[in-house]
Amino acid sequence: MDAIKRKLIVFAKAPIAGHAKSRMIPLLGAEGAAQLHREITRWLLNKLSHRVESGATGKKYETELWAASDMEHPFFKECVAKFDITLKQQQGSDLGERQFLAIERTLVENEHVVVIGSDVVSLTRGDIQDAFQTLEQGYELVISPAEDGGYGLIGCSKIERGIFDEILWGGEQVYKGMVNNLNRRNYNWKQLPEVWDLDRPDDLIRLSLEPNLPPKISQLFENI
Questions:
Q1: SS3 per-residue string spanning the chain
Q2: Structure confidence by residue, pLDDT tens digits, 62-99
Q3: How confident is the prediction for the chain on average, in pLDDT?
Q4: CATH T-level assignment (fold) for domain 6-219
Q5: How far apart are CA 131 and CA 153, in angstroms?
Q6: How far apart are CA 96 and CA 82, in angstroms?
Q7: Is the pLDDT confidence value at 185 over 60?
């Protein structure tokens, strides 16, 4: 069997009360917000982490979980055992540098890499497959804009540090800044469909309408 040369990287924080999903704390409390983060990460990994077919080519991808904090946290170890994935440590001073270093490192032994955050709950296996298929068509980079002005998925077959420069991470101009950087560097890139991530209390209503929502997530809405 040919070696799998496609990696899906999922960035995630540890579900620590007071630190995870802090914008949800006024509505859910610190423990509830941490529990929400824990459960949506599990849900996303369950949806996406298996070695699934990557489109009509019959090629597959493998999943890696990259921890933003202490990778020895029990939650990360639980995910590794449950979903049969690899755990690695994020490096870098901001989100752009962390993404660049993860992609650069992964492309050393892989043809394509796709990076997402654990809170982009709208993504499906089909979305991941489409991202890899588009890269296989010869594009150097694919990106899914997010409704809040950022982006929820970035996939690469080549990477340059400069595409992450001069971007105010967490702001509403992140996607526009990335597009400007890509165009200045003459990247052969393609925009994928827009996604949404779970970031603000208003997003909980939308989350509650998601099909096949795990019971442990639904239960968090009972006290709202």
A1: CCCCCEEEEEEECCCCCCCCCHHHHHHHHHHHHHHHHHHHHHHHHHHHCCCCEEHHHCEECEEEEEECCCCCCHHHHHHHHHHCCEEEECCCCCHHHHHHHHHHHHHCCCCEEEEEECCCCCCCHHHHHHHHHHHHCCCCEEEEEECCCCEEEEEECCCCHHHHCCCCCCCCCHHHHHHHHHHHCCCCEEECCCECCCCCCCHHHHHHCCCCCCHHHHHHHCCC
A2: 999 999 988 999 999 999 999 999 999 999 999 999 99
A3: 92
A4: Spore Coat Polysaccharide Biosynthesis Protein SpsA; Chain A (3.90.550)
A5: 9
A6: 29
A7: yes
Take residue 18 and report the two structure tokens written for it: 């007071």
Task: Please identify which residue in the block is written with the tokens 């982490």.
Answer: 49
Cα distance between residue 206 and residue 182, in whole Å: 32
For the chain, the domains span 6-219
Token readout for 12 is: 């995630």
Question: How large is the average pLDDT for residues 46-60?
Answer: 63
Q: Which tokens hold the place of 123?
A: 């993504």
